Amino acid sequence: MHHHPSRRRFLGNMLALAGTGAVPFTLNLAAMGNAAAQNASDYKAIVCLFLAGGNDHFNTVLATDSSSWSEYQRIRTTTDSGSIALPGVGATGGVLPIVPNSPQSGRTFALHPSLGPLKELFDAGRLGVLANVGTLIQPTTLAQYKAGAVALPPRLFSHNDQQATWQSSQMESSATSGWGGRMADIMASANGNSTFTCVSNAGNALFLAGRTVRQYQISGSYAVPINRLNDSLFGLPAGSNPLRQIISGEQSDPFQKDHAAVVARAIDAQATLSSAMAAVGSGVPDPTQYVNPNTGVAAVNPLAVQLQTVARLIGGRSTLGVRRQVFYVSLGSFDSHDFQRTNQADLLAKLAHAMAYFDGVMGNLQGADMRRQVTLFTASDFGRTFTSNGDGTDHGWGAHHFIMGGAVKGKDIYGSMPVTGLGHALDVGSGSLLPTTSVDQYGATLASWFGLSATQIADVFPGIVNFSNRDLGFMAS
């Protein structure tokens, strides 16, 4: 799947070879995308929240029935002070029980103590859990994995490659586009200004790289302007400032001309975006400070600030002329080889605080409830091992993730929660989970809600052909 051209490129090449006579017999995905986009009279947005470093899902969503909890405590409790086991249900600072709508063989479940706001969203039906999802090329059994009998994602357990595979279905060295960007390619014609179809508030994101659509990067809570572009410069009044003409004016050299055109577009986009965000104003309040569970100290939550910016852009959708948008935000430092119990508690507190803030803003954005039109999902490099090195965990594979929004069929766990312990049918070593659900299935379910057809989904996720279940059921139609 990594070396063959995409279906769209293949069909494009065939069309070019066959000439115009082949048009009636050739599937034109671009035209189909235009048709789907033109029918998108509503607004929808997908927000990817990437937990960079590989979140330990075993301490995020836990099985608490007696046999599972016994194994959890036996394996994750160590004799030193760095034990990563959490207190049980009802204990001081203990895990938070959740009751999914669909029972799983009499098992019971809970969330990390820092995820109180997410428990409330789960109970309210706006948050779901997807169990044991990860990078897969095709359904794989433990026997096939051990025998090398099927194709496997390249360079498992490598941060860079698994981040790239999660975001693009290709390894880092060959990835050129992400599935968020490929979705945007198809739906961009719904937008009057395609510049703001893909927006990252966490730097350059492979997830948002399209074949034609380019991501717009924004920093912090505002669109970054060119310094001193619109004010006085070297004693000259603002109205006589020549900086814009110098950096984006007419040029004769072709390279300088292209550079000037890029700069001019960037200046115009920044002005448009700033105007749209300013118009939203107090309609998107500043997030409250979160409280570090280890110290009790309140502080600014950078993830909440990123989501505030996303909310402002959604609030300015009419000004920006957009109907379909894909966003990327990120929270780092999840590579918990050491000090996991304290560090993850703080990170998950930030995660829960930011997601609850975003849900609240979407619930009353400019007097309207936008929750059903905006879906946020989490992703990460990989899960982690069930065994502990004393105060941390090592790189794993499958992991549990959250999906949040008004269109999410929440208060449920989708997929099958694996056995708690070691040596079971999904343990590829040290309790690292062999995924039972692929990232392609995860993304295809979101893409279907976003408005893509089955054919378009197959173009965005070429590997989806290997999976019979292409809709995991966690999104309302």
UniProtKB/TrEMBL annotation:
Source organism, top-level taxon: Bacteria
Pfam families the record matches: DUF1501 (PF07394)
PANTHER family referenced in this protein's UniProt entry, alphabetically: BLL7424 PROTEIN, DUF1501 DOMAIN-CONTAINING PROTEIN
UniProt KW keywords: Signal
InterPro entries the record matches: DUF1501 (IPR010869), TAT_signal (IPR006311)
Protein name: DUF1501 domain-containing protein
Signal peptide: 1-30
